[in-house]
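INTERNAL AUDIT FORM
Audit reference: QA-55
Scope: verify that the stored structure record matches its stored sequence.
Auditor: D.O.
Record contents follow.
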Amino acid sequence: MNKLIAAAAALAASSLVASAPAQAQACWGPQAVDAAKLRNLDIMLMVTALRCRTGADNFQPDYYKFSAAHQAELNRANGVIRAQFAGAGPAAANRALDKMSVVIANSYGMGHPGMGCKQLRQVTRDLAGAKGPGTLLAAADTLVGAPAIPGGQCATRVASSRR
């Protein structure tokens, strides 16, 4: 009986150790979180542009300009997200990115929670012409905030000073 308990304890301990690296990679570091914010911003603008296309504040052409102007940055962000999901292989990473994108798109199905078409049109025009590092990320922080990400954000350590 004791051997059975010891064997079960050893098996449980080894499975905890074996799963630790996978769990550590499941959380999202700062670069991946920033990439998810950019993905969220892009999809929010795309979905709301579709919603507003039949009104006086149609900004689909502005969204296309935004998308073209920032294509490289948005593609890099998508690559970072794909890499976050890469543990299961390239096909699974693409499916996970697609699933995440659909969840984001669905969250904007009723529009932006605090902005109407006119405001979104102006924001999109401004972003289409924006240049400089961090501009899109700052806009994402303001317009969409922290994205819902599977696995959550990795815990950060705060350095303490000892005297």
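Auditor finding: record pair retrieved intact. The mean pLDDT is 82.
Action required: none
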